[in-house]
Amino acid sequence: MRSYKNSVTYWDDLSFVKNATASVKNNAIEGFTTYPNPITNNKFTVATSSNSSKSVTIFNLLGKQVFKTNFSGEKKDLDVSEINSGVYILKVTESGKTTTKKLVIR
């Protein structure tokens, strides 16, 4: 690390990040599935292996939230008729684990 005039700090060596690994497998929701994809009838199903509470959020490609709901149980049919056709990001969170997936609405 070098410090220069006016207390600006620059990092020369970022080796502390070198051994870091991101593990998606450990954060995956067990038994997660969603269907159909693409959605053609304004409804789709989110399912997992657990009855735990789930948070389902859909974002457009600009990152704006366009849909959000919560439910408990292994699966739920969701109505997305209020969302325009397009490509979205589906985010499902259950018991501290999160899964994201591309979602197409036609």
Tell me about this structure:
- Residues 35-105 form the Secretion system C-terminal sorting domain.
- This protein is mainly β and 106 residues long.
- A hairpin with a 3-residue loop joins β1 and β2.
- The protein has strands at residues 2-4, 8-10, 33-35, 43-47, 53-60, 65-72, 75-79, 86-94, 97-105.
- It has a four-stranded antiparallel β-sheet with strand order 6-5-8-9, with no helix packed on it. A three-stranded antiparallel β-sheet has the order 3-4-7, with no helix packed on it.
- It is built from no helices and nine strands.
- The model is unreliable at 9-25 (pLDDT under 50).
Characteristics:
mainly beta; 4-stranded antiparallel beta sheet; 3-stranded antiparallel beta sheet; 9 strands; globular; Secre_tail
Summarize the helices and strands and which ones pair or pack.
Elements: E1 2-4, E2 8-10, E3 33-35, E4 43-47, E5 53-60, E6 65-72, E7 75-79, E8 86-94, E9 97-105
Antiparallel strand pairs: 1-2, 3-4, 4-7, 5-6, 5-8, 8-9
Q: Please bin the fraction of helical residues.
A: under 10%
What kind of oligomer do you see?
single chain
Question: Runs with pLDDT <50, length 5+?
Answer: 9-25
Q: Strand-and-helix sequence, N→C?
A: EEEEEEEEE
The biggest sheet, with number of strands, parallel, antiparallel or mixed sense and barrel status, is:
4 strands, antiparallel
Separation, N- and C-terminal Cα atoms: 52 Å
Q: What is the average per-residue confidence, as pLDDT, rounded to a whole number?
A: 84
Say how many strands there are.
9
The Cα radius of gyration reads 20 Å
Give the overall form. globular
Q: Spatial order of the strands in the main sheet? A: 6-5-8-9
Helical segment tally?
0
Beta fraction of the residues?
A: over 45%
The helix-and-strand class reads mainly beta
Organism: Polaribacter sejongensis
InterPro entries: Secre_tail (IPR026444)
Keywords: Signal
Pfam families: Por_Secre_tail
